[in-house]
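[agent] plan:
  1. take the single chain provided in the ticket
  2. run structure prediction with default settings
  3. attach C-alpha cells to the ticket
  4. add a short note for the reviewer (M.T.)
[agent] executing step 1
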Amino acid sequence: MAARVVSTLPEGKEWSYEVKFDGYRALLLKDDEKVQIRSRNDKDMTRTYPSIASAGRLLPSRQAVVDGEIVAVNASGRPSFQALQHGGAHSGFTIAFYAFDLLFLNGVDLTESPIEERRSKLSALLDGSGLLLSSELPGTAQDVVEAVTGLGLEGVIAKRRGSKYTPGDRNTAWVKLKLDRQQEFVVAGYRPGPYGIDAVLVGYYEAAALRFAGSVRAGFTPRVRREVFDELKPLEVSRCPFVDLPSSKTSRWGGGITAEQMVEMRWLKPVSVAQIRFVEWTADGHLRHAAFLGMRHDKTARHIQRET
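[agent] step 2 finished; step 3 output follows
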C-alpha cells in the first residue's frame, strides 16, 4: 500500500501520524523457520540484510507478513539514506527494520481488518524480536510537523483510523508530507568526468514520455562516482531517451541541455532509479540545487512520476 503526496497534513481525531523513514520499503515474510525480505518491486533482499532476517526468525508466530522500512540509523536514531547505500556499518550506522503494519498472521489475512487492530497485533508480535515498531506520534498535525522538522527527519505519514490495507493502491487512507524535498528519478544519461561520471541526467515519466528534470552533480564522492559509473556504463544507448531535450537554454541551477552540449552526454536505457534531494522546482520544470543521495534498486523506473 502506498501513500499519496500532500502539501499539508490532514487534521482531526480520525488521523494517526508516524515518521516517514528514509530507507527501503520492504515486506518481511515468515513461514516457520524460513524468512524472506522482499522489496516493493519484489526483489529478494534477504541475503543483503541478514540481521533483519535473523530478527524475523525470532517472531513468536508460525507465519507472518510484516510491512516496514529498512533504515540505516546512527546512535541517536537518526536515519541516513546515504549510509544505507553502503551497509551502514562503515560510517557508524546500524541497519534497522521499522515495522508499521501486519498483513498476515498464522493463516489469517488481516488486510481487511482496521489499522488499529493490525497495529495492536503487530506491537505484541515484535516484542523482543529486535525488529522495531514505527510508533504513533502524539499531538496535533502542527505539533507533529514541528517535532519532525526539529529532528531533521524526512517527513510524516498520516493514516486514517479504521482503514483497511489495500495492496498496490495509492489512495487517500495513507498520505505523506515531505519536509525534506527529495524523490526518486529515472537516470537516463550522464556526463563523463573524473572517476567516470561528472553528473547524472535524471527525469520522470509523464504518461509514456520521459521528461528531463535536471543534471545532478553534487552529492558524489570519488568512490561513489566509480560505483555508479560501473553500474550505468553497460546501459548505454545511442539515442537520447528524454522527449524534451535538447533545451533552448541552460540555467545555473543545472536545468537544460543545449544542442551543443548534447554531444558531451552519454545516454542510457531508462531502467535505473536514483534518490535525489533538491531545494525546489524552477519555473521551467527543472530541479534547483539537486544532490545525489544514492541509487535505488527497490523501485521500478517506469513508475517514477513527478511528485510535487
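[agent] step 4 note for reviewer: The chain has six helices and 18 strands.
[agent] ticket updated
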